[in-house]
């Protein structure tokens, strides 16, 4: 029995690694196409039909590009920083239930690698550690723009983590569990039971913190090309740069699954739509929303991010917790 569990866990881990690595590359193509459409451009068109083979061209370029390390960089830290970003992104996925249980050849498959009873805490903790990758990359590079990008990483980490942690306390108080499966089951009664209706402020705060966690516009302070070239990634090339990029897009999928599971009914059936398809549609919509925001919202400065998180969003999260507590008491 233990051997079968180990084999099943290994197979799930390989599938998650392969699928989301491929989706990270495909999402870049979709992003370029969506941004082009919104800006009245064509986007990638030359490589394959409508540019769909651009993914293969970009992947080949990453694998073949010279792995350059600056002479004055702190080489051990410079080399390990991309690994931290990519590894933590996929480790965070181990506690995420992607789909409902289903049977295959008479065997019940649970689409979660590790069903821990503190799933939310585990996912957010590991995802937060992922920002140490850009921080170490910026500090170890022999480049002032990289150092500024690393400093901005610390600013962003200290700002959004407070908001993301406090914003989900109120929903967790209502559910009474840190398990993502329990949170999903709490909303099993239909669309009226979704936590977005009883916790709209928590939803908005968590989504805003998600933008900062995934380094997406308007909170892409770490590599804002108009100010600090490419930030922490300025000195990186080849697959080391690719690992940063894969980790960033893997985090995007993790955050979208978290939002779907915690506020939008998760993988419960949605009217006539089965639960597995429902959560895929929700995640696709959220990813589109993240891309849409990039096309329509300007960048903000680091001091504006700190002002927003510490003076506006954090007090709102605390007020929401107090109101939820009083409502539950009476």
TrEMBL record:
Chemical reaction(s) catalysed: a quinone + NADH + 5 H(+)(in) = a quinol + NAD(+) + 4 H(+)(out)
Residue intervals passing through the bilayer: 6-30, 80-100, 112-133, 154-174, 194-212, 241-264, 270-293, 305-329
Membrane-protein topology: Multi-pass membrane protein
Signal peptide coordinates: none
GO MF term set: NADH dehydrogenase activity; oxidoreductase activity, acting on NAD(P)H, quinone or similar compound as acceptor; quinone binding
Gene Ontology biological process: aerobic respiration
Primary subcellular site in the record, as a coarse category: membrane
Entry's localization field: Cell membrane; Membrane
Keywords per UniProt: Cell membrane, Membrane, NAD, Quinone, Translocase, Transmembrane, Transmembrane helix, Ubiquinone
EC number: 7.1.1.-
Similarity section: Belongs to the complex I subunit 1 family.
Cited NCBIfam families: PRK06076.1-2
Descriptive protein name: NADH-quinone oxidoreductase subunit H
Lineage of the species this protein comes from: Bacteria, Pseudomonadati, Campylobacterota, Epsilonproteobacteria, Campylobacterales
Gene: nuoH
């Amino acid at each position: 029995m233990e051997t079968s569990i180990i084999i099943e866990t290994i197979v799930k881990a390989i599938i998650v690694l392969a699928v989301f690595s491929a989706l990270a590359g495909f999402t870049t193509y979709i992003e370029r196409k969506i941004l082009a459409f919104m800006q009245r451009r064509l986007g990638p068109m030359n490589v394959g039909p409508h540019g769909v083979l651009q993914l293969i061209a970009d992947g080949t370029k990453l694998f073949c590009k010279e792995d350059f390390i600056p002479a004055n960089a702190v080489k051990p830290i410079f080399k390990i920083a991309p690994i931290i970003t990519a590894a933590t992104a996929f480790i965070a996925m181990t506690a995420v239930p992607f789909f409902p249980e289903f049977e295959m050849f008479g065997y019940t498959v649970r689409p979660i690698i590790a069903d821990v009873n503190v799933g939310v805490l585990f996912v957010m903790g590991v995802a937060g550690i992922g920002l140490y990758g850009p921080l170490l990359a910026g500090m170890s590079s022999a480049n002032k723009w990289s150092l500024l990008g690393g400093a901005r990483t610390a600013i962003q980490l200290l700002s959004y983590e407070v908001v993301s942690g406090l914003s989900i306390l109120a929903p967790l108080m209502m559910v009474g569990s840190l398990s993502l499966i329990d949170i999903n089951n709490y909303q099993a009664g239909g669309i009226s039971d979704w936590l977005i209706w009883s916790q709209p402020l928590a939803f908005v705060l968590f989504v805003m913190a998600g933008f900062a966690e995934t380094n997406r516009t308007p909170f892409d302070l770490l590599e804002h090309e108009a100010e600090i070239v490419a930030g922490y990634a300025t000195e990186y090339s080849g697959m080391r740069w690719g690992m940063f990029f894969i980790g960033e897009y893997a985090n995007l999928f993790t955050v979208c699954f978290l939002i779907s599971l915690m506020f939008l009914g998760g993988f419960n059936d949605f009217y006539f739509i089965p639960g597995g398809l429902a959560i895929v549609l929700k995640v696709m919509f959220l990813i589109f929303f993240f891309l849409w925001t990039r096309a329509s919202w300007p960048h903000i400065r680091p001091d504006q991010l700190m002002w927003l998180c510490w003076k506006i969003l954090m007090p709102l999260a605390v007020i929401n917790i107090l109101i939820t507590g009083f409502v539950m008491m009476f």
